[in-house]
What we know:
The protein is of the alpha/beta class. 37% of the residues lie in helices and 18% in strands.
Amino acid sequence: xxxxxxxxxxxxxxxxxxxxxxxxxxxxxxxxxxxxxxxxxxxxxxxxxxxxxxxxxxxxxxxxxxxxxxxxxxxxxxxxxxxxxxxxxxxxxxxxxxxxxxxxxxxxxxxxxxxxxxxxxxxxxxxxxxxxxxxxxxxxxxxxxxxxxxxxxxxxxxxxxxxxxxxxxxxxxxxxxxxxxxxxxxxxxxxxxxxxxxxxxxxxxxxxxxxxxxxxxxxxxxxxxxxxxxxxxxxxxxxxxxxxxxxxxxxxxxxxxxxxxxxxxxxxxxxxxxxx
Length: 276
């Protein structure tokens, strides 16, 4: 059994022509690693002398965060994040991130707006990875904002996706409806937050995210043409040269074949520079 924990992020793009980014990140665990990871997670807190009620998050409120209380705390943050990513790799975590650039001028995909479409993209990739491994799985999202009625409406809106599947993927590997849980009770959701935030920051052109990519890269799910599409989905396709600039990808699959990156055709941006 595999458990996929998913969290969202929104960030402002810094590259030329890039708008705000809407994204989801998933951390996928084998069931046998869930408890060991939680124990190792708590051990990192002890090693760095971080209070246990401080959540591992990519974005922390500047004025209210424990990290902002002193220079000593601030100095711990990046090493703390790096250690957590090392612990995740040691526990065989696999990650998937899907990102939509709102500045691309595309308002929908398959009839869905960006925030709904990235959920569908993520569901498809988690389903394929778990099914291809010969396993079954459960998907757990961070509890959405709003009250219980808002949460119920969000879950109901995903019911058909899980029951019937999507245009491209049948839900053969997912054994139950999508679940939600509060992140403060689940280290695995906090890891998903860090993965979503740091990878999206790297795509956006944020150096703090970029410096974490070497630790995340070994955990990305891969397909026939590497990380592209399987572990990191960028939408629209005009962003695909960022696979080269962000994680060093040298090819991208199109249909049954692949093309080298960076690619100067099809209107793809960032063919000759990274947009920074």
